[in-house]
Batch of 4 targets.
Target 1
Amino acid sequence: MDGTHLPLIGEETHLRADAVRNRARLLEAAARLAAERGAAAITMETVAAEAGVGKGTVSRRFGDRNGLLQALLDHSEQRFQEAFLSGPPPLGPEADPATRLRAFGPALLHHERANLDLYLAAEPAAERRFAVPPRRLRHTHVAMLVRALLPDADAELLAHALLSSVEVVLVDHLVRDHGMPLARVEAGWHDLVDRLLG
Amino acid sequence: MDGTHLPLIGEETHLRADAVRNRARLLEAAARLAAERGAAAITMETVAAEAGVGKGTVSRRFGDRNGLLQALLDHSEQRFQEAFLSGPPPLGPEADPATRLRAFGPALLHHERANLDLYLAAEPAAERRFAVPPRRLRHTHVAMLVRALLPDADAELLAHALLSSVEVVLVDHLVRDHGMPLARVEAGWHDLVDRLLG
């Protein structure tokens, strides 16, 4: 009895590990497409082609395009969080707080631009906007850096002011409606940080 | 023929002027109620009682409560705009730019708090959020002050950062979800302005 089960258990474990790797590979392919050609370029077909698998494999993992986009946002958000919480300098903990704060704005801008369609589609209602977990985590992080740099400031409020200045909906308005180059928004973050740090 | 019409025209003019006065009186009464007891206290009945007229008069002017609230927001917005564009100091043009900028945040906060329910109910969709006329006018005004005070700064972006720091949805989150006193948000505006002006 045990003998007949062991190979099956082994097979199942093998399949699961394979499924996890497969999923990660598909999400990496989708993230590459989003970064290079924008989220609009993400379809079940383009992700399958980019990952070198059949379209059926993508469908089995994510259901439809919306399922894929949601999974991609979670995945991308997690990598961004890892980068500023525990990644290498200038974002991560080995750099000094001023360097980390200066680097955070452009990193957030690029993360948001790479996932623009996802963020705009997932924009929460007004009463939830500041309570969603990624926003709270960013705020905690920026407030921690501000507290280290400006002990006499109201770090909580300054962190909100900083984050709001590169908020995805505002930046989209500036870029789309006013044709503002993203480099100018990045320079604006550095200017704001430098003026605050005096 | 002319003789029979003249009195009617006179009567009509008289009625119109009366209607305008009536409308203004009802809106002033509603604004007082909102400032003293919050927008939730505004009903057709309370406004009628505050203005010393019958409920039918309020219904004839505004239709229903929603019509009244929309008219009130327009009315209140216009008074706020007059205050910072052409009103007395510290908001208006007779004060120096630094004084006007310092005063603008608390004035905006109080204006938004007095109309909180209206603003939350009227919160535009993401793609329209920064394009609505009152927001644009505030931005033009703050950018003009920043330009006068910090000629080397990116006034357009700094104005967005400043305005976002006292944005109605953020402030509502801070006050409602975190129990932050409004006085602290006001102090945060002054702190932010003072740090930027150096």
Target 2
Amino acid sequence: MRVVIIGSGAGGLSTASNIRKYNKEIEIIVITKDKYVAYSPCAIPYVLSGKIKSFDEIIMHDIEYYLDKDINILTETEVIEISPTKNLIKYKRLDDTKIKELKYDYLVIATGGIPAVPPIPGVNLEGVFTVRTLEDGIKIKKWAENCEHATVIGAGLIGIEMAYGLKHLIPEVDIIEMASQVVPRSLDPEMAKIIQKYLEKLGVNVLVGKTVKKIIGEKRVNAVKLNNKKINTDMVLLATGVKPNISLAKKAGIKIGKWGIKVNEKMQTSVRNIYAVGDCVEVKDFITGENTLSPLGSTAVRQAKVAAKNIIGKKCRFRPVLNAMVSRIGNLEFGSVGMTEINAKYHNIEAVCGMSKALTRARYYPGAERIYVKIVCNKDGKIIGCQVIAKEGVSERIDAMSIAISQHLKCSDLCEMEFSYAPPLSTVVDPFVPACEEIVEKLQNG
Amino acid sequence: MRVVIIGSGAGGLSTASNIRKYNKEIEIIVITKDKYVAYSPCAIPYVLSGKIKSFDEIIMHDIEYYLDKDINILTETEVIEISPTKNLIKYKRLDDTKIKELKYDYLVIATGGIPAVPPIPGVNLEGVFTVRTLEDGIKIKKWAENCEHATVIGAGLIGIEMAYGLKHLIPEVDIIEMASQVVPRSLDPEMAKIIQKYLEKLGVNVLVGKTVKKIIGEKRVNAVKLNNKKINTDMVLLATGVKPNISLAKKAGIKIGKWGIKVNEKMQTSVRNIYAVGDCVEVKDFITGENTLSPLGSTAVRQAKVAAKNIIGKKCRFRPVLNAMVSRIGNLEFGSVGMTEINAKYHNIEAVCGMSKALTRARYYPGAERIYVKIVCNKDGKIIGCQVIAKEGVSERIDAMSIAISQHLKCSDLCEMEFSYAPPLSTVVDPFVPACEEIVEKLQNG
């Protein structure tokens, strides 16, 4: 049996490793346009910031590592066509014109996402970048060395991480966001304000509610034009989102949904022996039940496990997503899971919210840091979202709330929950509790 | 209406504060033998270690703080008798013989615990201590200043925290534990071994599987006698557990259970208008359904909220406990929630366990630290316990598992759970997952 996997990102390589973990016989071939495989693209901003010493460090494994596991990887190779009726793909090396064919028993599409480039004049100028691959990271770092001013367009997660990273290489960094706040998809305004202030404290200029109308330059960028002003700049980074890379699947007649490749709980596409995982697929949202995107490395890895298990005949399903995300800027961590209040409104869900501002440890214990918690419930008191900002423990707290939301817990349940306590590690009343109590009271008082 | 509260620990004072939070009219009187109130006894070891500068810092509030809230506190005052039929108590100042009476509408017994002193000859010698109150802490610190060698008897939580604290004041510290491991109530042997090694690395001599037969000395302690040897020592700390302080309640005819004062879900005793909270009550264990003790500050605080709400007529219940505990020795944090494998065996629960050794952050991210996770399931795969050791994020992880266990999650559920990921905060596969996968496989293979 042969499994062919298109794409060497988190989704593709995890599928390969998972199949091999459970089965030593299956032939596994990964085909990728990338030169480097098994690196962590999420870590690129931290190489720019210098926190991680070099790009080499974020390469987790080399080709030999996979060869040792009897996983074949064809790098710098492009799949041209999928032929579901013949169970074969056509492919060619990037530096060659010769097209080859390869039969498969199972095919896994893990083609990932491609940066969504906004329709702004000038996006093709030299010095305008998107960031997706390690090579993008290397090019950006090199270009940044000679810059006095950089402009990041889009203050989503990648935008602010990159702005923070670039600030370590470039004296002036502006981040320009169309929405009236940073991280609009994952944080509510009052939480976003904390992140914005922190970014500003770190020296990044944050411009929210502003649109870049034009990127100006002859051959290379030298300014961006906003509604009412022009800002000279040496570099533009487009951090305006990612869209699923679905062209191959579409051409092959595989069913595409509203957002990406349609898959069932097994990660199986509309074609029985073709699976798809990662940023190229659409998933179900746990709260709304609607289809959505979840372009996260952790999502891809979980999907890969599901696809691999199903291919080898084990039962496993991929659950609707809560889009648990976390990030870190400087020393500040923040995260979000489920719905924000704003997203709830957008989906016509009546939200009742509670906030708490507390400490991460007993107030007298050295290193106790401020923590901000926001909990979002629906009108029945069921928890549908949570946002946390602190200098520590954010990821674990988001995970705790991911478990709570997935189990349909109410804010009243969390008020009665048993949390651990020791002065060096936590506070005697967990910060989640007062936020939940606020909601309980709001609900009681109508 | 008047509420009288006996005891000024976490249970007593939290009951007072909670009643006042919801009701400004009720007269509240707290009676306590203690001189200092509203301090954090759990923090005493960290004052000894010097991490917290002085005992003053762990006093959260003074008497005036409570007076401002219209909460009266009678310190250094002892309740002599409770008369449930007359709704009154008799009390006297410690330095006086005059007995006074006080009527109550509701009485809250928050008399806490008293150190369980083992029946070893010599426990009354000078230089033999127990630790419970701030005054104990002050006395111990003073005595320790002139010691060359200290012996801590009992390697439970308090024992190892105190041994670690004392090591900063005394050149040689032995900790002697009857069981074959440290922290026998909350950790399984392989996890306890990590803590033991760390303690030893910090210079504490750990003697497990050893019993102190006698404490030797004329007026003051000068040695401890074990089965086969004598160890010279200048100080002995008895950290051999705590037992509920139930004498007042017992004398008043209030129903006592196998372990402590019997209460219902409202924290109401067998007498309608008498409540009890904190270390003096027995609670229901979530896993076994049997009665047990939960002598934790966080338990007392949650019980206090329940008692207060019920006294003022709001609905609130105290749920069965999972005994979530966390601690920190040096830079190492550890915690446990629910059943250990050993405790499960003791309760005739067939346990299936999984372990994982992973990292707290992406392996290339500076500050990534080792994390050890053990998960305990019953034979249906339902999670009944979890232990975590790491240098960060332990408390939040224990809380996440407290939520998971309280919701009857299975290990297979956790394998499919959505965990957050960013290289500076976490790993792409959460350490809980491989531990749960190990259990799933064990269960599948019978």
Target 3
Amino acid sequence: MLRARISPSNSLHRRLAASLKHARSASTAPAVKLNSVGKDDVAHFSSILAPTSIVSSLSTAPATEDELDQYNSDWIGRFKGQSTTVLKPKTTEEVSQILKWCNEKRIGVCPQGGNTGLVGGSVPIKDEVVLSLSNMNKIRSFDPISGVLVADAGCILQTLTDYVAPHHHIMPIDLGAKGSCQIGGNVSTNAGGLRLLRYGSLHGTVLGVEVVLPDGTILDQLTTLRKDNTGYDIKQLFIGAEGTLGVVTAVSILTPPAPQASNNVILALPSFKNVLPLFQTVKRELSEILSAFEFIDRTAYDLAVKHGQGRALTEEEVEGAECFVLVETSGGRREHDEEKLNDLLENLLTADEPLINTGVLAQNPAQFSSLWALREGVTEAVSKEGKAYKYDISIPLSSFQEVVDSTREHLRSKGLLHDKAVKAVLGYGHVGDGNLHLNIVADAFLPEIQDALEPYIYEVVQNLRGSVSAEHGIGAMKTHALPYSKSQVSIDLMKKIKNVFDPNGIMNPGKVLE
Amino acid sequence: MLRARISPSNSLHRRLAASLKHARSASTAPAVKLNSVGKDDVAHFSSILAPTSIVSSLSTAPATEDELDQYNSDWIGRFKGQSTTVLKPKTTEEVSQILKWCNEKRIGVCPQGGNTGLVGGSVPIKDEVVLSLSNMNKIRSFDPISGVLVADAGCILQTLTDYVAPHHHIMPIDLGAKGSCQIGGNVSTNAGGLRLLRYGSLHGTVLGVEVVLPDGTILDQLTTLRKDNTGYDIKQLFIGAEGTLGVVTAVSILTPPAPQASNNVILALPSFKNVLPLFQTVKRELSEILSAFEFIDRTAYDLAVKHGQGRALTEEEVEGAECFVLVETSGGRREHDEEKLNDLLENLLTADEPLINTGVLAQNPAQFSSLWALREGVTEAVSKEGKAYKYDISIPLSSFQEVVDSTREHLRSKGLLHDKAVKAVLGYGHVGDGNLHLNIVADAFLPEIQDALEPYIYEVVQNLRGSVSAEHGIGAMKTHALPYSKSQVSIDLMKKIKNVFDPNGIMNPGKVLE
């Protein structure tokens, strides 16, 4: 029954086929013809920018390919452009003049923040100008009373975190890449990260943006207001637009007060069926101090332990556990928070029909870190085990295990589940956000595995009304997969909106929309 | 110095004048010609809808003017349209067919929810068809695990609140009008209300919408996902569009777990200067359980007491108090919350340089309600005192008192502050949200008072980069004031977006954009 529900139905197959056909026919419309950067263009940029703000093989002090490479390649080495020219403006006015010129000359522009994205959104596809925001890194203002921070787009997330810390505030987002990702890039990709369950998405916490539109117009919506009902909330379009509508040059963002204390606990569950009632119980008992509820299936747990993570639970405690949950609290007073967490654990363990086999509460900061390391160590363990096909999807919480299991069965039915092909299918992720990381670990990347996985997984996601990209975005990597999560009506509207902002198609061409 | 900072500068005057001129010249472009509803149209609607879904003076069973009046008039009696025809569809498909027809025939459509708005957004200006969502009132689904509720647009907020209560969830918004306002209207006006400080705006809590576009196309973005980074977040445009881009027919919204306990305290402050450090202290000490921080100035307090609200503090305690603050907590465990609130009060009272004169903590539910009644009674007291000019503005927290005082001085300088003209100028509102309710109470509505207040107040708001409509919207009432809060670049983009969705201009004509 379950299998039937999540397998793509015939009618869906047809709907999707029609949708993809439509998408293809739309994309066969004559593409916008963009021009390459020439020496004249670089000479013009020299009249706008300081010499140190230009890295170009066409300038009078030509850059080497190596110098350009860090801007042309993404950090995982999957995407590589051939840009000849990188511009690093220092002011919004400079960005405006660059875009005005590129728009008139029909030169493509690829805005680039920390270049930490996962879908190739921040590197050029061909020879677009790379517009790096790295030199725009001033904090414009911080109001310790309201907690509103206004910062240039190129400010690094960690720098901002450090800046607000003495005022007892934190950034509403936190990412693994925080040491190099930039706030403008965070906003442009609508970064999710570890604090979303508690502080919500950037659509709620970003109060304003300053954007340079492709024709050079500066759109100043850099308000610091929490409430402003004066017309359409245009700034929202730039949150997650991946630089395809304009260049975000500054951001106004609401920073929450810092919690005074954090703690965590790992719970072993006899069955995935218990995850959902457990989530309800935990939400009810911990209420406003719950800050993470992370799921790790048994395969993921075993893999993390195999590849060196500390065993949080004894072998005996792990016996019979089908999956694990990591619960984190962040609150205003340590003794209250600990009392709540202790009571929760006691109630869970002494229940008539316990939802958990066992649980371990962190007793000190070292244990706190070690429990998180187990959860975060899954990624590393997967790389050590083999080659990984990774899917970052949003689906209903109730289908997490179902999707992992049915993917495994699907691969088995194709004869691909054995030592020389797929070694493991595992799931982990943010139950609280409905975000599952589905990993398929193989001995090697093989076309038959790829063909077995796609479009299979995208169809499963579509059938569950899920998202083929929960937090990473579309970039250059998933433009073909967009129809699995967005209807043709939505995609058509996106194209019309793109056309309103960027009629010449110079902004980050080839990203988001095909 | 302060006065100088918030008085409109000359350069601002010039900038605004230019902006208004531009706005006017744009509005002199030939307006879209819309047609009146005829008998043929009503006959066509009869082929789509059940007879009980049509209220029209042009139908075979003609409605009286009285029957139409409730749809033509807003509840405060300030706006009145002359619609002959009200349609009350029961399904999204019916809405689609109505809009398709109206779009082809160039008939204006005014979507109407509970008709509880404050800016005339939900009643027709001329004889547009009124499209009432009242018959679309089914709850489509509720997932008690994720807390995601999917409901027809016409569901009443209180009904939804009652529906999720047994699951220990609450709606993320709460309004005075909750007994009659509808969730589709809440979303279309981006309603703020009493819970914004705690749960954020609808831009964060609304996960998806179903919208019928003017040409009848159904845009299905009714996702229940917390995370979905697949292209532009188009649904955001409908949040706060006041029905000018399409008709919201269903909403998917995240409902938070219900708090287990609430409490409140009223604090008397010797000076407004103390409000801001107090806000910081309260945020730090109460952290995640702080759910309201409301400001009442002395004039507002005295007026509420004069007109019958219980005196929360003794005459002695009130002596020397320049303003008052109401703090509310909502948390997961009563004893913890009370301990935090008690400690806060003790720390405030025993500080070396106390920020407050005194404070009173509610000891039981009756006192809790009575403290809220004092805050909420200001509105009623103002109506009893005289005729009120009301401004719902967002400005930086630090300028709250300054704006109230400078408005009073401005009226005094015009010779209007005396018994036969302006009797009181007062301020109260949501410090936590930066939302000030500025009220000018007069003996009667007089043109010279109106002229002294506008554009003066709008200019002050503009100079502070504030919002001329924090939570009520623009509707029909404030289209002329939009340029004080939005730049011409923003307004031009809004017009282009309007044109993408509604090229024939049939949706709620005359609202938001002139």
Target 4
Amino acid sequence: MSATAPTSTLYLSAPAMAGLIGRKGVGHCIAGIAACIREDFLRWPQFEKSARVASHSPDGVIELMPIADAATYTFKYVNGHPRNTQRGLPTVMAFGVLADVATGVPLLLSELTYTTALRTAAMSAVAASALARPDSRVMALIGNGAQSEFQALAFQRLVGITTLRLFDTDPAATAKLVANLDGTGLQLTVCASVAEAVRGADIVTTLTADKTRATILAPAMVESGMHLNAVGGDCPGKTELHADLLRQASVFVEYAPQTRLEGDIQQLPADFAVTELWQVLAGHEPGRTHAAQVTVFDSVGFALEDFSALRYMRDAAVELDMGEHMALIPALPDPKNLFGALRQSAASASQGAAAPGLKGAPG
Amino acid sequence: MSATAPTSTLYLSAPAMAGLIGRKGVGHCIAGIAACIREDFLRWPQFEKSARVASHSPDGVIELMPIADAATYTFKYVNGHPRNTQRGLPTVMAFGVLADVATGVPLLLSELTYTTALRTAAMSAVAASALARPDSRVMALIGNGAQSEFQALAFQRLVGITTLRLFDTDPAATAKLVANLDGTGLQLTVCASVAEAVRGADIVTTLTADKTRATILAPAMVESGMHLNAVGGDCPGKTELHADLLRQASVFVEYAPQTRLEGDIQQLPADFAVTELWQVLAGHEPGRTHAAQVTVFDSVGFALEDFSALRYMRDAAVELDMGEHMALIPALPDPKNLFGALRQSAASASQGAAAPGLKGAPG
């Protein structure tokens, strides 16, 4: 890529990303992103962190999630519109950028709809590896929507889960999940209620999407020693766990200032004790201390996970020589002469000499 | 564009934008964006506003600038790296997105490096039209870098400026500006100092780029009745005007919470009196009240101006049938089945059946 302009941006479209994930394998990508997340969480203090910037509307939310270390800046654009599926659109759509801190050049523009599903599952598995009982084999999956297959594969590969107990208020969602997991070797049990699915599970993963204060899990359902992977409660007004359940458990979070606004702990006072997961991974704080303890990962999705995913995908694209180059930023013959470059580029375009399209990656 | 997927994003690359601006004309685009800015500032209370999110590093800054009304969300990514020109890169590079609030779909991804230059000049001209003396004909341009031609053309077209007095510490920058303005009909005088350039001017525009607390303009240089268009002081630690000069003038800003952090008024206490420009445009507050008054537009660049520019460019692209369609978001046959779509798209890609590239706009 050395022959391209220094302002050229590598572009990974959604179809290109599907091709990349297909060549690598979904499980391989989740494992690779999980390794990057672990590396990046271990150098947590090196990142400039902030809670994401959310724009709420009656139908949903649009968020920007920036983060940077000394060398690399990333941000993700992501929406959450629970009623989108009624319009034939995904509930969650995302894209992101990886840029050079030293110059500000956007080096990579990537789809992140597929990638967010991978990284959310990878993050859940990293947390469960540190917090669930090591002998965990059975997981309940409450909510069998777009994220559920990725969670199933991540926990099979990285946590050792062999059996899934499935529940969704929409039987069609569960049927889709069962069909998609065919051939994976996972044992599947379709359950008639949340309580039935949760009974006897080692890990309970909640993936519900309604933008409401729901109580998917109540204290009576939870057994000693369980790990709860609470993924669906991730914005103000959107929760899944009963507050008493949180009070009786050990709660772990990604980035406390953001989770207090968006996670299930938004139901609790601002001084409710939580542990940031990076402290556990780094050995500064204990994770699970005994087999009967109930642990909760109150996951909301933090910008650092997208940083990890974007750098994994950039490296994979370079390795596989995938993606295209886009001229999102003008290449200026004299960077102090923007006006001259504009006039020259406009003249070329009018003569049909410009190539405003994307150039394929050099072979 | 009705045949494209509902998740399809219109893409305006930097060369495509140069072509679009070339077809419309720079002056025409500036006037069109100025009209959009005026419209949008007049409905100021309808916007969800916030100060931009800045990530500072030793070499520069990377910022995200989101804003939304009930129907449309936009954000801009923009950097500021004063030493970039030594590496052959622009000091300021930008791109942005316009999205649908109801669904979160990104409808437009556009270059904004050229466009930011146009909208900054349009904003300055909108402010000067409300604040400068109506008989203003002579403008001093202090700093003759990448933004200077656009300011010159905006003030000629929208404010009635006929004569420019030019100064830059780098004579090559001034020579470039003089060459680029050849044939515009503007009368140009190259000056040997800031003081010489400012003397007798009706409007003084400062466009310096150093990320330092500078004093480009001191009180002794300023004459009664002048309008100061202070564009260069636009982030913490980067100022152009002497604090006493601000104290003796009437100061107007875009969005006070952001300008108090980033503008020249960062040198003054948080309760220093300023007027938001939209109040003047809407007739709620007076602008200039007498011919001897010194007015200052302490411009930093606000997200609403990019909102205005993005909607102008989207409409222009649709009108001229320019731009391409990009698959930044996957088109899912069943939006609840992300995993199935990923597997299917990956299989298509491996069979060479996918078209991961951009599709040209339908003719």
